[in-house]
Amino acid sequence: MRVVLAGSGSAVGKTTIATGIMRALSSEGVQPFKVGPDYIDPSYHTMATGNPSRNLDSFFMSEGQIREAFIRGMEASNARMAIIEGVRGLYEGISPINDVGSTASIAKALNAPVVLIINSRSLVKSAAAIVLGFKALDPEIKIEGVILNQVKNRRHYLKTKKAIEELSDTIVVGGIPRREDLKVEQRHLGLVPTVERENLKFSIEKWANAVKEYIDLDELKNIMKNAERIKGEREPLWQVKNHKKVKIGIAYDEAFNFYYIENLEALEDNKASLYYFSPIHDEEIPDVDGIYIGGGYPEIFAKELEKNTSMRNSIRKFHEDGKPIFGECGGLLYLSRSLDGHEMCNIFPYKSTMTRKVQGLSYVIAKSEIDNIISPKAQIFKGHEFHYSNIQITGNPQFAFKIQRGKGIKEGMDGLTSKKTLASYIHIHAASCPTFATTLTSSALDLG
Predict the structure, then answer these.
(1) 345 noted as active-site residue
(2) Has this prediction a pTM greater than 0.90?
């Protein structure tokens, strides 16, 4: 049982509706998925269902890898049904004419039915035209239902439902009314992360109650039940070459919580035991062989990070001892000299500052210029960047990566290196950099 909840565009209410549906059906066993490079929406899904949400992305993954990631997720949770939240509009990807990076590509790879979510404000008959257009653009996409959002009242809903069902031959499974209390707080990187939302459980229950009241969940389950068999082969997601036990520390707290679950599983598949620690609250890093500091919001907690001098000293000593540290985006800022004037770890002697405008927002293709702790020289891998910060580079630092698509840190280069520390603006997914876990664990074994 599976369904893709796709939008007719961005900001149509996909996340509140998808998360509400996931919560409403959670007692029946739901495995959540999110299309595209996203950390925050999946954290909402995870809280709603109790199962870790997983990302599916056709820029990072081949069709065979998409199927592998999907089935791996279903087997891990032993859930009865899969609910996949799309990204932006159903057909939006990196090209105006092909499917790469789009929700449509995931629906095709999984042979999954689609329910289209439409902002129906001021629409009645025109909503039918939207559905007809989405169905006609690609006949391979099976749009089996519609959910209306921003419905004015019962009369508006019934008129729009009649137009869509009679003119586009597509079932309308429900309509969510215009309600301010169903909106979600936003921030520059998207939805506010779950670790900061004390009232998130209450909000999710509110979304679920709205779903139960206004969406025909039995009809939605019928759409999922009628999904045809998944066709095509499965392909491995990453390399598994390290077979010796190793200990990897994972920075995880309010400041650092952007991790793809597959990255952590790839490390575990390569015999890593994971030890979580907090750069804000703990005095020092645990007894580990290597460290992984992911992305997040270090700028919001810069004062707290600065105040924890013992942790910063612990990480700096780990670096000076020649042990491997890998930092992604927020991790890069933490490993810099300072962040908006607050002292950080000073492994890289450069000031970092936040900006009002986005500095990097793109899928990335990079080539390793040197052997490093996640990839060998000449390796080409993919990732994504999304940041509102700058690193004030001086002198001639050594960069590990040359950017072929994207921006990077400076003049098309990324991946600052110092001893065995590597830090980059690039967020990677283990499927898009298959050497990541094997190389990092091997480096930790050799140097830890």
Answers:
(1) no
(2) yes
